[in-house]
UniProtKB/TrEMBL annotation:
The chain crosses the membrane at residues 6-29, 75-96, 117-139, 159-181, 201-219, 231-250, 257-276, 296-322. The keyword Metal-binding does not apply. It is a multi-pass membrane protein. One of its GO terms (molecular function) is electron transfer activity. This is Cytochrome bd-I ubiquinol oxidase subunit 2 apoprotein. Belongs to the cytochrome ubiquinol oxidase subunit 2 family. GO terms for cellular component: cytochrome complex; plasma membrane. Keywords: Cell membrane, Membrane, Transmembrane, Transmembrane helix. One of its GO terms (biological process) is aerobic electron transport chain. InterPro entries: Cyt-d_oxidase_su2.
């Protein structure tokens, strides 16, 4: 029962990493689009693409927090009392990002538009970075089972910083592929080329960081390294293959295939992390069964989670379908 609850929790983590990651990555390209005149068209496409879905994707973050808090309360307490600095900064980034995205559509003065746009774009980079450091701190075993670990070194360390940089890079790559596909759907060749070049550049940069990270993990997180090069290796290879295929096919593949490949590249590497870490919930020292709530709680949580997924997944799928078909007002 505890393993099943952990799998459901990690499904939520993967969904947020992919869908929320695409949103954050769009903010990265908003930040680097250039001045007001130069970046107007690319920012307009980003706004139109994000408007119907950017709030919906945070459902997965709430789902993960509830699952972790209810199903694995000791692990939840350990994480929150150790990694409260990056978690707090990530939460602040989520709030600032949402406020910036919402208000830049309604303010009329140029300086206000610039301020709100900068808030949205900057926090879109900061938030995945800090969430990546949290993942690195957990994966490398720097969160004690009883909590209250070092509030600084738990996330300022080689593995955590690697996780933060990779999170930003993966988000940028996924978003660039999605936006390339969106521009192709709209028959906008100029924007398609603009985002295609950035997808290629972000893929190369993220791949280089991942290769450099092999040495970092070997030296700083031995058990995670062994897991990723052992039972997690097939998923890592699938992720690399999906990423490479999406880059090779950027010029000619249909938009849905490009999006599926980008999702596969991001999702499988997150799943690979989970497989590599199993059966531990906290890095190297707290097993899933040891951190789990009583079976009665897990059974109730499983039923509630199943009901939630049955309600949420079809609703979100309908939202994405309506958006892809242009039936939603994005003005």
């Amino acid at each position: 029962m505890s393993t099943f609850a952990a799998v459901v929790l990690f499904i939520g983590v993967t969904a947020y990493a992919v869908l929320g990651g695409a949103d954050y990555g769009a903010g990265f390209w908003d930040l680097t689009a250039g001045g007001a005149r130069r970046g107007r068209n690319s920012r307009h496409l980003i706004d139109q693409t994000l408007a119907p879905v950017w709030e919906a994707n945070h459902v997965w973050l709430i789902f993960c927090l509830v699952m972790l808090w209810t199903g694995f309360p000791s692990a939840f307490a350990a994480i929150m009392t150790t990694l409260y600095i990056p978690l707090g900064l990530a939460a602040l980034g989520i709030v600032v990002r949402g406020s910036g995205f919402a208000f830049r559509k309604v303010v009329v003065k140029t300086d206000q538009q610039r301020a709100t746009g900068a808030a949205f774009a900057t926090s879109s980079v900061i938030t995945p970075f800090f969430l990546g450091t949290v993942a690195g701190g957990i994966a490398s075993g720097r969160v004690p089972a009883d909590g209250h670990g070092d509030p600084l070194t738990s996330w300022v360390n080689p593995t955590s910083l690697l996780g933060g940089v990779l999170a930003v890079g993966v988000c940028a790559f996924v978003a660039a592929v999605f936006l390339t596909a969106e521009a192709r759907t709209r028959a906008d060749a100029r924007l398609e080329g603009w985002f295609r070049r950035r997808a290629q550049a972000s893929a190369v940069a993220t791949g280089a960081v991942a290769l450099a990270g092999i040495g970092i993990l070997h030296a700083d997180a031995g058990r995670l390294f062994d897991g990723l090069t052992g039972r997690g290796l097939p998923l890592v290879l699938v992720s690399a293959a999906c990423g490479l295929a999406s880059i090779v096919l950027l010029h000619r593949a249909v938009p849905r295939l490009l999006q599926a490949l980008a999702v596969g590249a991001a999702g499988t590497v997150v799943v690979g992390w989970g497989v590599a870490q199993y059966p531990y919930l906290l890095g190297t020292h707290l097993r899933i069964g040891e951190a789990a709530a009583p079976n009665a709680t897990l059974a109730s949580l499983t039923l509630v989670a199943a009901a939630a997924l049955l309600l949420v997944v079809p609703a979100m799928a309908l939202l994405f379908v309506l958006h892809q078909r242009g039936h939603l007002d994005t003005t």
